[in-house]
Hints:
Shape: elongated
Number of strands: 8
Number of helices: 17
Amino acid sequence: MQQTRKPGPQRALVLAGGGAKGSYQVGVWQALQELGWTPDIITGASVGALNGCLFTMGKSKEAEDLWRRLEIHDVLEVPDSLKPEELNNFFLDVVRSGGLNVEPLAETIDRLIDEDAVRRSPIRFGLVMTELGTMRRVQCPVEKIPEGRMKDYLLGSSACFPALRPREIDGVKYIDGGWRDNMPLDLAAAMGAGELLAVDVNGVGITRPNTTGLPTRIIRSHWNLGPTLDFAPERAARNIALGYFDTMRLFDRMGGTAYGILPDSSAFLKNFAERYQLRLAEVAARSPAIDLVEKTARQLANYPAPFAPNPSAPTAAALAPLELAAEHLNVPADMPYTPKLLAATVMGSFEKDPADRFPALLDGKDGSLVAEKAMAAAAPEEFVTALVSRTLADVPLF
């Protein structure tokens, strides 16, 4: 769906660097297209520049196909016999020897990037590099990139030094833009943006404070997107799904914090949240400080705390215990769930009920409250998972 742009501030999409984590940005772009959110400007650093260039040309399908089959040998010159567990030592040797050649990446750019199409696109493109000799940031709107040099500038922005060799342009060596500005918000502002949407993939480098003064939203994942140089199709497919869900969540098309939660057409979530709070209150009556354990579990796992006056509302806070339990039980995050489906998946993800570890706390049965409280404090996520399990036993799933 292509949305008709209304007069107003120009929108900019800002794509941070992060190597193999850049697959996440493909999912973000897919969601934005579905939502009809079209940027006027795209800026990027490193892999964000490469993805942004493809998006500027309208090559979203090609970008997805590329990431879904991309392996490390398609990006870097590494021995075919190299095993994943040998990568770390290999890269240590590479750093000592001056960095890897990126000819496979250069060939990919030759195949996919049409410089004329980038320059003709209604979406203006820009990237950042770092000058190696001075370590200064170099901002490059497309108009400042000399004709015929787009490939060099993309490789310069992506030269993740010292693992990769610097890119020499007109006698000057350049390295990854992320070294000085991994999320180029300032460049987008300088190019005329009035509204910023940034995608942070937790890449290596310097992310500068946002001093633009512009309305800014940032999309980032709750999950670890993987090592910077772990180019693997399975991980890319997962990251694409996560990027899609997180963007849909930002635009209020999905709920939750970590999982892609579809709208709840039943009263299940409300019933669960109410019953969960009642269960927690019952446990707190037996052990007054146990609510701090529950709060700690949320904080450690970056889930929102419940709030007054209506903690049973179908919000991220109401979903948090269920999502936390799902994460603790390794429920896959690369598919969408309704609250009820996530609950059913949680209940099907263990053989021994975690609630059985806390009979005195959860059910008031004979046992040692002191021992169980200590166990809950030592593993708060295990206690929340047990409390969720006991709560779901009271809430109809089928």
